[in-house]
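// run 5 | inverse folding | seed 20
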């Protein structure tokens, strides 16, 4: 893949960067997806949350974390007293990757090559926002921010020092929805978030 770098404008203005991302052809995911789903929220956020990629609802809607996983995240944030509007929410990969099964579009994890191709957008978001804390939700976000060897199982609930910001790790809210014991997984997710916000 050629990657997104050639599509990233040289600007300090996040809105200009977001607009440019609408036309990104840095990898093949733009072909089947409906639209680019860029990050959203406060451009001066103290904390940035990074997920994996837009899901079915986000792809259709054009906004991050608006589907079932986003609702679960909203509930968890409300429970620990964090206002979503004070944050910036984005994804490691900005287009939805899926396979069609009948009328359904089934989420597919992005490939390493797609994560690498899309990395310049996330890097630019983090550079312009310059948050104190970056919270990675799930394996793909963790690898995109901390490198391909970083493991959620080893880092979950911890905050480590990154080059430009502190980095906290937990699971993706979609993993909570898929868990066998959803109540227990939700409690653990809320506990993680509480700890990360406090430690960051
Ligand atoms: Fe560009 Fe990222 Fe979309 Fe690929 S996934 S086309 S790199 S915005």
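// decoded
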């Amino acid at each position: 893949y050629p990657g997104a770098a050639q599509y990233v404008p040289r600007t300090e203005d996040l809105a200009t960067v977001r607009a440019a991302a609408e036309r990104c052809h840095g990898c093949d995911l733009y072909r089947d997806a409906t639209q680019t789903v860029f990050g959203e929220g406060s451009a001066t956020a103290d904390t940035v949350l990074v997920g994996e990629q837009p899901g079915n609802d986000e792809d259709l809607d054009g906004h991050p974390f608006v589907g079932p996983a986003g609702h679960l995240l909203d509930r968890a944030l409300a429970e620990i007293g964090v206002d979503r509007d004070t944050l910036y929410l984005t994804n490691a990969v900005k287009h939805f990757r899926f396979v069609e099964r009948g009328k359904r579009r089934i989420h597919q994890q992005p490939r390493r090559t797609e994560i690498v191709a899309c990395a310049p957008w996330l890097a630019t978001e983090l550079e312009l926002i310059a948050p104190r804390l970056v919270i990675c939700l799930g394996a793909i976000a963790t690898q995109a921010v901390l490198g391909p060897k970083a493991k959620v199982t080893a880092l979950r609930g911890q905050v480590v020092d990154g080059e430009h910001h502190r980095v906290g790790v937990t699971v993706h809210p979609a993993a909570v929805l898929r868990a066998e014991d959803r109540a227990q997984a939700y409690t653990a997710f809320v506990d993680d978030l509480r700890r990360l916000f406090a430690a960051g």
